[in-house]
Amino acid sequence: MQAADTDWSKTEKKVAQAAFKTAYEREVSALIKDVRDHSSTIVELDDLWRLHDFLSARRHDIDGKYDYRYSVLIFVFARLLKEGWLQLGELEGLERDKLAKISSLARMQE
Hints:
This protein has helices spanning 10-39, 45-65, 73-83, 96-108. Helix 1 packs antiparallel against helix 2 (45-65) and helix 3 crosses helix 4. The chain is mostly helical. It has four helices and no strands.
């Protein structure tokens, strides 16, 4: 099954949107908590620049990761599953083949 050739039913699109939103909100909430923790330790200018660099890197990572094109969504979900932002059960409603591919890809990633 080629990811680019994968069709998504209306039901699958709803499941995918909900899972995507859930993972995004979880990661953003974790980032906000992390920033609060980091910012409470800022004492000097170098600390501030380190926080800036951290935020720049995280923004780049998050902006690149959350790609809602159906042609790459299986890979996105595999990564989110691997990183712990999603659980496989939150993708219930997707075709069995899609779930198997997502699960398999998540196990294959570093």
